[in-house]
Amino acid sequence: MSEVTCPDIHIIQRTMFTTQTTHISEAISDHVWRTRYGWCEPGRVPEPSIEAIFDRVALAVSGAEAHHRDDWRERFRAILSDFRFLPGGRILAGAGTSQHTTLLNCFVMGPLEDSINGIFNALRETILTLQAGGGVGLDFSTLRPMGALAHASVGVASGPVSFMGTWEVASSVLASNNLRRGAMMATLRCDHPDIEAFIESKLVPGALSHVNLSVALTDDFMRAVEQGSTWPLVFPLGQHPVPVGGEVCERVWSGDTTPQLCLVHRRIPARVLWDKLLAAQLASAEPGILFIDRINRDNNLWYDECIATTNPCGEVPLPPYGGCSLGSINLSRFVQDPFAAHPKVDWAGLKAVAAVATRFLDDVHDISWFALKAQEKAVHASRRIGLGVTGLADMLLMLGLRYGSQASLDLTREVMSTIRDTAYFTSIETAKEKGAFPAFDKVKYGASPFVLGLSHELQDAIAQHGIRNSHLLAVAPAGAISLLANNVSSGIEPIFAVKATRVVRGVDGQTVTIEVEDAAVRHYRKLHGAKAALPAQLMTRDETSTDAQLRMMAQVQTCVDNAISKPVHLPPDAGPLDLELVVLQAWELGLKGFAVYSAGRRGCETVLAFQR
Question: Which of 18, 122, 315, 559 suits a disulfide with 474, CB 3.0-4.6 Å?
Answer without folding.
Answer: 315
